[in-house]
Amino acid sequence: MRTKSVWAPLLGVQAAVIEAAELDEAAGEMVVAVRVRSKQRRRCGRCRRRCPKYDCGEGRRRWRAMDLGTVRAYIEAEAPRVTCREHGVVVAAVPWARHESRFTRAFEDQAAWLATETSQATVAALMRVTWRSVGRMITRVMAEGLEREDALDGLVRIGIDEISHRKGQKYLTVVYDHDRKRIVWASAGRDAETVEAFFKELGPDRCEKLQQVSADGASWIRTVVQQRCPQAKLTLDPFHVVSWATEALDEVRRHVWNDARRNGQTAVAEGIKGARFALWRNPENLTKNQKLTLASISKTNNRLYRAYLMKEQLRQVFKAGSKEKGMGILKRWLRWAHRCRIPAFVGLARNIRKHVDDIAVTLELGLTNAAVEAANTKVRLLIRRAFGFHSAEATIALVLLTLGGLRPPLPGR
Ligand SMILES: [Zn+2]
After folding, report:
1. Same structural domain, 302 and 272
2. What is the tally of structural domains in the chain?
3. Sequential DSSP letters for 168-184
4. How far is the CA of 196 from the centre of ligand 1 (A)?
């Protein structure tokens, strides 16, 4: 084996000719000089079409490659510019890296794979890059993945969800495929325009094939869905309904807590403050202590306990097992909430009354709520991991790579 030939597979630069390799022991760096094979030369960096050379660009350039043991490795080569008919003057393509990247494809694929698996600190430390550059890498990896595969093919039942991704009211609109249980589309924003953009990309033919669209009841989603695919049945994701009730319950808890503090009932106020999680949790998951907390609230605080029971009763609507039973429970619940004289729940009842028809369809079609809720929880966790990316695009890339099936395989495997 010639010594030179060993570098190509090590660095993942099969399509290049190795010219020289130099180790700088003090710096812990290996620089391998290569040149692009003649067939691959003078191609547009964006469309890979063969083009005439424009100039030498900024001369020689380096790309960070995968580490060789503990040594940082770089590929060095010419980076001329070409004139593309479509894209104008651009830096020529190199076979080992994506356009406008200072890292090799293998390096980026590994970073993307890791980013979907583990924390930002781990990825940054292991790959010896900043988390922000990981954000740019995965954005490129995602774009390539989307070119390879059209995730919007074959959609029948989808869910549209809005998820906050940054403080200060910044939202992502996310589209799930209920049948394949994955996320197929995401974009910054939460308004009719964003939903429009999705349906535009889907196109009229694929819109016609949609049978069910579930959402959180927002009117701007409803309007667009009714226009673009009138044949699809609109349903309400049950976990949204339950989360409205949880919010109403929390409002009651805060009021009761403030009243107790104002009246100097310190012990009562403390008890209510500590009851937050007991009130939120589903009763089947309560710990022994949380059960005791609830029991004491039932004795000392009638208003808060009634609010809790109402939240729980609303949950039963979706657990009834049939449309008739569920709607029966809902009707009784609406009457109860309407008369309960707890403003947060009177308001909730008014809101839910507007969605009775959607809830009926939801119960009829019996979409498994668990999967949608699980996906929503996963997206939230990913969004937390994406903090520090400084761009919604990179956050979307992390979501689509992890939950959309676009994750690249590990290099060489
Ligand atoms: Zn081009």
Report:
1. yes
2. 3
3. TTEEEEEEEETTTTEEE
4. 29
